[in-house]
Design a protein that fits this description.
Blueprint: E1 3-5, H1 9-13, H2 16-28, E2 33-34, H3 44-48, H4 52-65, E3 71-74, H5 77-85, H6 87-93, H7 97-107, E4 110-112, H8 113-120, E5 133-136, H9 140-145, H10 151-157, E6 163-165, H11 180-183, H12 185-201, E7 206-209, H13 212-225, E8 230-233, H14 234-239
């Protein structure tokens, strides 16, 4: 299968380990992963803050860059949600029906990482080994927009050596929400405090999620508390093996 990685802005600029882990995992599973060098931002932040016309060139670039791949895999629920649910809508709203059709075709082949592993490859066990106490935070876009359901948890439960503990009030937002955290800082901080309290109550060494953005928010809060709990992208856990640790 010809698979492309859309690495996302955050992975490209701040958390490259999430992108590297995604490639390592998929290659271990027998797939050649290509990284189209012309990829840029998916345009989510533009659309979400009201700059839809400015997002149109980014939507066009995404459709052109990833045309021809059998699958596009993204280690981010929010960026996958943008490709799947915003690109064609924005193009059509701005009168570019041809781009909307192309965006729909590409979106149909675009998958969040855990959806690709479970739905396309038919896997619940990817042969990972991670001997740590871990709790999982389901991110808002993956949970509510993409409907990933229990796919991440099914994969985590099959990781050898893991001590997976349930996160209380797991479905509550962490308070990041992109520019929400900037525009509504006090509310965001209060939501983060609730999320951190629940994470720490589990006694987990690691809080994992499928979005670097949420992990950045939670991890930043935990680091300021010197709590000793780390944040690790789900791809990194699934890419870990006995040989690597």
């Amino acid at each position: 299968m010809r698979v492309a990685l859309f690495v996302t802005c955050l992975a490209d600029t701040l958390f490259p380990q999430a992108g590297r882990a995604t490639v390592a995992l998929l290659e271990r599973l027998g797939h050649r992963v290509e990284f189209p060098p012309d990829q840029t931002c998916c345009g989510q932040m533009h659309v979400n803050t009201g700059y839809q016309r400015e997002a149109l060139p980014l939507i066009r670039r995404f459709a052109e860059t990833f045309d021809g791949y059998e699958a596009i895999v993204i280690p981010s629920g929010s960026c996958t949600g943008s490709v799947r649910h915003q690109h064609a809508m924005v193009a059509r709203r701005l009168g570019d029906d041809d781009l909307a059709r192309r965006a729909e075709e590409v979106a149909a082949r675009t998958f969040e990482l855990t959806q690709f592993l479970t739905d396309v490859l038919g896997l619940d066990d990817v042969g990972a080994y991670y001997p740590h106490r871990v709790t999982y935070h389901p991110t808002c876009h993956s949970l509510r927009l993409l409907q990933v359901g229990d796919r991440p948890l099914r994969l985590l439960r099959n990781v050898a050596g893991i001590d997976l503990v349930e996160l209380p009030d797991a479905q509550a937002c962490c308070g990041f929400g992109g520019t929400f955290a900037v525009k509504n800082a006090d509310v965001s901080t209060a939501m983060l405090a609730d999320k951190m309290r629940n994470v720490l109550s589990t006694g987990a060494e690691v809080c994992t999620a499928g979005d670097s953005s949420c992990l950045m928010h939670i991890g930043g809060g935990l680091s300021r508390l010197s709590a000793g709990t780390q944040t690790v992208h789900l791809a990194e856990i699934l890419a870990s093996t006995r040989a690597g640790r």
